[in-house]
Structure formats: C-alpha cells, structure tokens
Known about the structure:
Blueprint: H1 7-11, E1 29-30, E2 35-36, H2 37-47, E3 52-55, H3 62-70, E4 76-79, H4 83-97, E5 102-105, H5 109-124, E6 128-133, H6 150-154, E7 160-164, H7 170-182, E8 188-193, E9 201-202, E10 206-207, H8 219-231, E11 235-239, H9 246-258, E12 263-265, E13 280-283, H10 290-296, E14 301-305, E15 328-332, E16 346-349, H11 352-360, H12 370-383, H13 395-405, E17 411-414, H14 422-426, E18 434-436, H15 446-456, E19 462-467, H16 468-474, H17 478-484, E20 489-494, H18 499-508, H19 523-530, E21 533-537, H20 540-552, E22 557-562, H21 574-582
Amino acid sequence: MDGGGTAKAKRGKAATPAAEPSAVPRLPVTTPGPRRGGRVLADALVAQGIEMVFAVPGESYLDVLDGLHAVQDRLRLITCRFEAGAVNMAEAYAKLTGRPAAAMVTRGPGACHGAVGVHTAMQDSTPLLLFVGQIPFAETDRESFQEVDYRRMFGPLAKWVTQIDQADRIPEIVAHAVDVATSGRPGPVVIALSEEMQRHVVDVPDLGPAPVSGAYPDPSAMRRLQDLLGAAQRPLAIVGGSIWNEEGRAALRTFLLGNNMPVCVGFRRQALYDNSAANYAGDLGVGADPALLARVREADLILAIGTRLPESVTQGYTLFDRAGTTPIVHVHPDPAEIGRVFRPALGIVADPSAFAIAAAAMEPLAAPWAEWTRALRAVREAAQVVPAYAGPLNLGEAMRELGALLPPDAIVTTDAGNFAPWAPRFIDFTEGQRYIGPTNGAMGYGVPAAIAASLAFPARMAVCLVGDGGFLMTGQEIATAFHHGATPIVIVFNNGMYGTIRMHQEREYPGHVVGTDLTNPDFARLIEAFGGHGEVVETTAAFAPAFRRAAAAGRPALIELRTNPDQITSRTTITALRAAAGA
C-alpha cells in the first residue's frame, strides 16, 4: 500500500479514485520501507502529531535516540537534567496545548524518578506518553540490571501500561496509546521498550491519528438540566478538568454569564474561567476562603462541569452530602467518575467543551438568583482586600502588583506548598491567561512546567511561582531552559522552611517542631551562575521594579522573595497557631 492507501486501485478496476468527492476519507498511511525499531518509534511519534519529547537519555533506548536524530526536523528533543523534571515538562506541555507530549526515561532508576510526573498526570487528568527503556526481554524475571516489571509498577498510576517486544507492533501500540491518553478522562500511558526490539529491522506502515469526536451530551439530559436550573434559587457551577478547547471555554462563559450563574473553579483550575467576570466567586481547594465555603454550603443546586469533585475541591469530601441532599448535576467524560463519591441528581457523560457548547445553545433562564450571584461575588472581592501584613514585604500587595504586570496572554505555573494560595487569592487571572499546577500536590512541578510553557509558546511570558523547598527539588532544570532557549521568570518564596508541614506541626503538635527548617543558598546568585538574571526582594516597593527588570532581561530570570516566616499563610500566622494551640 502506498502513502495514499490505494492498494486496491493498483490491483483492481472497481476501486473508486481517491480524488472523487464521493470517496470515503482515508487515514494517512505511509510505508517508508525497512527500518530499525528505534526509527519506527520516532516515525510513529511524528505520524501521531507529537511535537516534543522531553528526555533524560539512557543506554536502554539508544536506538530510539538514534531514530529521533533522523526526525529532528519534525520532532524536537528536549534534553532534561532529571527524570521528574522531564515528565513534569511533558505533563505541563499537554495541559497547555491540549495535545500529548512524550517523555522518555531509562529503565529502573530513571523510571522511578519519572513516576511522580505520571502520578501528577493521572490525578490532573492530563494526556501523557511515557516511554521507558527496558532490559532485553530474554533476561526477564532474572532480576537483570535495573529490571522492573513496569506493568506492576505503574499499574495504579496510569490509564494503560504496556511493553513492546515486537518492532512491527510499534505503530499500532503508539497509535492506541495516544487514543487511550486523549479519550474519555485523559491520562498517562506508560510504554516499556525492550532493548533488543529497538534494533530489529521491520517493514511496517506508519499510522496517523484517528479523528474521534468527544462525547456529546444527551439532549434529554440537557432538557432535564434546564428543568433543574429552573427550579433552583441558589445554583452554583464548579468548573474543573484539565483539557478544554478554546471554543469550549468561550461557550462556558456564554452559558454561565448568560444565566448569571455564580461559578467557582476547582483546585488550581483558575485558567478555565475569567476571574474578573462579575459571576466569578473564587476557587475551591487547598487554602479556599472560609467565607466562600460557607456560602457554597447554602447552594441548592451544584453544576459540576469537568471536575471529578475530588478531595481537594470538596474539602475532604465534606462540602456536600454524599447521599445527594443538595442536588448535583455532574458532567464528566468518564461515566465511572459520575457518582463515584457523591450521588448525583443527574449525571451527564460528555466532553466538557462539548457540554459547554450545548449549554450555551440553550435559551437563558429568567433567573431569580441575581442577588445570590452578587453575594458570592462580594465574598470574592472582600477576600481580595489586602490586609496590613506584618513585615517589610507584603505578599498580598506583591501579588496584586504581579497581576497588574502580567501580559494578557501570560502563562503562570505554580509549585505545591503554602505559598501557592497567595496568587489565586489576590490575582484575577483573565480570559487569555493560563494558570496551571499539580492538583496532586507534587512539589518540584513549577520550574519544569514554566520551562515547558516557554518552549511551547516562546512569544508568551512564562512565570513560575515556587517555594524554597520546591525549587531545590527540580530547580536544576533551569539548565534545560538555557540549553534550549526558554526564558521563564521564576519567583521563589523563601521562608526557610517546608511551610505546609510546619503549619500542620504548629496546629497538631504544638511545641514539637522538627524536620521542617531549611538551609538555602542565595537563589539570585545561583541563577547568575547559570548566566541568568537574579534579584532579591525584601520590601513591597522593590517587587514591581525587580519584576520589570526580570521581564526585560531576555533570558531566564529569578526573583527571590524573602518573606516573613511567621506569615505561614495568607490568612494566619505561626504566632496565631501557637496561641490557638495553647488555648
């Protein structure tokens, strides 16, 4: 069969010419001739539209690396410094583009280091392909050098785990892996690559992507939704999920604004809805505003769109009654997630963007909840008033300054830690901006994610928010930024401790602080050693000028914020926690 898939036309007279308008469209197929397995894999990634591979090279997939050399004009290889950084970059790339990227790691230790990114992709519902070099399959079950059974290791962490032992199956398995990663609830797929298989020479066609439309909501379910909304007095939308398209986000805004319905976003999902809109009420998750949570409990209808309603969003599964006393309409692409914890009044199996488009087409209601929406918006606005925090650097004011300085298309990535809620509280992320972070709370995500953002969208500003603890987990990936021309701006919140754990210690084990103090380098001088721009900020007034200089530097930049260690969150201090514990 040739590249157009016209084998029949060569053999028989009855075949319909491909150029005729009535011809059935055929999937793109090419047969480049005999190739080694490593080259077949590289070509399979190109055929599936994969644009970047984030990797730490290893001897277990040398033939794949050689294959990538042959396609470097079509597939960019990003050489990383640590496997966790590489897989986090691939995960962030997929979050931002809606398309899967690939990560490659070597066997054994490399796979173990990269596992954290697979866990993040699973809990964040992000499409991802992780390729792991493997031992020769003839040595299986001998505890060969770096041998791991990846099906057992990654089974609970991924949507699908497989191994390729026959080179002629590479196009089939890679194509199916992309389908699995991107369908239903998106997620990671792990593929082990037998070492000798990569050297086998096979003659097998490449397979292109198969266009598959997302699940569209049942029209009868949409009519039932309209009835439930019509009976509500205090509805609330909660928006989540990882992969939305631009049309879906625009339709979501049309639907929710058209019905003047208040909306909250799930944990680290600020980018899904314009925070400056009059019906935006705030974010649910770690560090959520207690006043907002009190209002959410007053809702008489919850419309959960795209979110799994996980532990972080539902405050340890306590925000709603699991039996469904407060009616919940749960929209999710995976039917297994609907009713998993909270019994819904109505479950709608649908791609979130497809649902939003269908919802936007419905006639808006003459809603009786205008005052309810105003009240929820007032809670958000009250939370944004910056208190007079003690110390020379007021992080609330600094975040307000940052929000004003961000371009309308800026990409902000966040790490995990107690510093993280400052930005969502005081910054209104707007329609064209993006804000991403690990919903599984994995430290070490922010810096690799910002590098991936800068590589994927080099014309846009990429800003990383990270604590001193998280930066020293994967901050060495700054070397990757220099190597490949990325220009992230990293803002390090330095309070000299693992702040989240210290907060819990102060609250739960007063007087028993142990293991949470940190000794840090001079972060500004650290990035200067790489050749970047570094600054230290110790006062509120110094922040905005420092950020402007970092933005103008034209190379990777870092701003170290030396914060007040007592101000453990945006809402309390260590002093207050100790006083409460003493009482």
